[in-house]
Specification:
The chain is an alpha/beta fold. The protein is 37% helix and 17% strand. It has a domain of 166 residues: 2-Layer Sandwich (Ribosomal Protein S5, domain 2), CATH 3.30.230. Bound molecules: zinc ion (ZN). The site of zinc ion (ZN) has 6 residues, from loops.
Length: 506
């Protein structure tokens, strides 16, 4: 045989696309020509494949070899094509029968020693192979549990190219990989650990129930990070479809733990303010990696010391958060990732960050204003909830010593409130109050005028913008769902207003 074909999968964002690998051998000056938009890493594949074949005990053919990757117009990135290239070369040179590879999908990078190395993006690749009707996929042993999350395709795990050759030649067939039981998820941080901070606890509960973005201010040590870390635990666990979606993002990002290959809980991503745009949004050379924003899809993106983030970075977050997806453009192509994340910003009230709060602040009024104004603008305008936390000693004193409610208790209320909202919103394609467009809010679910008096007064005296008014309504609906009411009353409007018009808010 001089012509052989097999299959692999290329990735665009979190979507896999089948790539046909064809190898043609001809007489002539020995050389290898690779066609079909390979990137630099794929071009180096030829050297890895050559060394791996030799080290697997086979011979790399001394012929003129043309390797085609199609569809030709799709950019091919990364090292995951190695194994398919090797299999096609071996089939074209009759080391293994051609029919053993022509319907097979192979994923994996080859080491020069012939080992099969793990790659990023195995889950979306295997999903694509299954959807395209393929029956079998060979994956690196390191990715086998992840691949086996897809039930509708037989997963064969390989540690070395020699194993793959023995399988294809019929000497020692690989057996179907069966995924072990998923280990129990590690315990999430519990709200029961947070002493005092009644207003902060209330804010994360409301944020969880309505899907609202949240802005926490307060002196260092007030518990801003503790509260933010406990928000994912209040959100409902991911259903199967959502779990696969989030897992696929982490798979492409290379942040999936091998021992727990399925993300079942909303994630918590907390990039540092020195993080680059690429690590926050996504990018990198070669295969585009999703950033913290995308890894927080269906979870929480926490920006601590938010005023320290470069303004350009914060402004860049606004559109993707609103659209629920982000497209990253690179010379090698572009990739779109979902990023329906809940945002939590935290800030000290001023640059001196005095732990004792305002009493010990040494900043001038101008310094304080300048610091707070760093966060003003379009991003802050999208945040429904703004809460100012008192210093923790004062807070503990104010709240007394009653044992704090645990995550399990609060999550129960959140689930009930979400169910009420989902029922009201059924048929609209929306699921939480924070997503309701302003027009629908005012027309379809109008709150009786008498209950609105406080908010209307705030609007008249300019303390509230029209957009802000809508945000108060959204939060009031969430408070009403939490309280088991059918429509917000004056109390819910007043509390929602209080969570909007905070002292420190810009
Ligand atoms: Zn200060």
């Amino acid at each position: 045989m001089t012509l052989a074909r097999t299959w692999s999968v290329g990735l665009a964002g979190v979507h896999g696309a089948m790539v046909e690998v064809e190898v043609d051998m001809a007489a002539g000056v020995p050389q290898v020509v690779l066609v079909g938009l390979p990137d630099a890493v794929v071009r180096q594949s030829v050297d890895r494949v050559r060394a791996a074949i030799v080290n697997a005990g086979a011979t790399f053919p001394h012929r003129r070899i043309t390797i085609g990757l199609s569809p030709a117009a799709m950019p091919k990135q990364g090292s995951g094509f190695d194994l398919a290239l090797a299999a096609a070369v071996l089939a074209a040179s009759d080391v293994v029968p051609g029919h053993s590879v022509d319907r097979l999908v192979l994923l994996g990078e080859l080491g020069l020693d012939g080992s099969v190395r793990g790659i990023r993006g195995v889950l979306p690749a295997v999903l694509a192979a299954a959807r395209a009707g393929h029956r079998q996929v060979v994956v690196p042993a390191a990715n086998a549990d992840e691949a086996a999350l897809v039930d509708s395709i037989e997963v064969l795990a390989a540690k070395t190219l020699a194993e793959v050759v023995a399988h294809l030649a019929g000497r020692a067939p690989l057996t179907r990989h069966v995924r072990g039981p998923l280990p129990p998820a590690p315990p999430a941080p519990d709200l029961g650990d947070v002493v005092g901070q009644a207003s902060g606890r209330r804010a994360v509960e409301v944020a969880a129930a309505g899907g609202h973005h949240l802005f926490l201010t307060g002196p260092p040590g007030a518990g801003k990070t503790m509260l933010a870390e406990r928000l994912p635990g209040l959100l409902p666990p991911l259903d199967e479809e959502a779990a696969l979606e989030v897992t696929a993002i982490h798979s492409v990002a290379g942040t999936l733990p091998a021992e727990a290959p399925l993300v079942r809980r909303p994630t918590f991503e907390a990039p540092h303010h020195s993080a680059t745009m690429a690590s926050l949004i996504g990018g990198g050379s070669g295969q585009i990696r999703p950033g913290a924003l995308c890894r927080a899809h269906r979870g929480v993106l926490f920006l601590d010391e938010a005023p320290e983030f470069p303004r350009a970075v914060l402004d860049t977050l606004r559109q993707p958060l609103e659209r629920g997806s982000v497209t990253i453009h690179r010379a090698a192509g572009s990739a779109t990732f979902p990023c329906r994340a809940q945002l939590v910003l935290a800030a000290n009230p001023c640059p001196c960050a005095s732990a004792a709060g305002d009493a010990a602040c040494t900043c001038s009024a101008l310094e304080r204003r300048r610091y707070q104004s760093r966060l003003s603008g379009p991003l802050l305008d999208r945040i429904d909830l703004r809460v100012d936390l008192p210093p923790v000693t004062r807070a503990a004193w104010l709240d007394g010593v009653a044992p704090p409610e645990t995550t399990a208790v609060v999550a129960g209320r959140v689930a009930a409130a979400r169910a009420a909202a989902a029922e009201r919103l059924s048929g609209t394609g929306l699921s939480v109050n924070s997503q309701i467009p302003g027009r629908l809010l005012r027309e379809r679910w109008a709150v009786p005028r008498p209950s609105l008096r406080l908010a209307e007064r705030a609007l008249e005296r300019g303390a509230l913008s029209v957009r802000g008014f809508d945000r108060v309504l959204r939060v009031a609906w969430t408070l009403s769902d939490l309280a088991g009411r059918t429509v917000p009353g004056a109390d819910e409007i007043a509390e929602a207003l209080g969570m909007r018009l905070q002292r420190v808010a810009a």
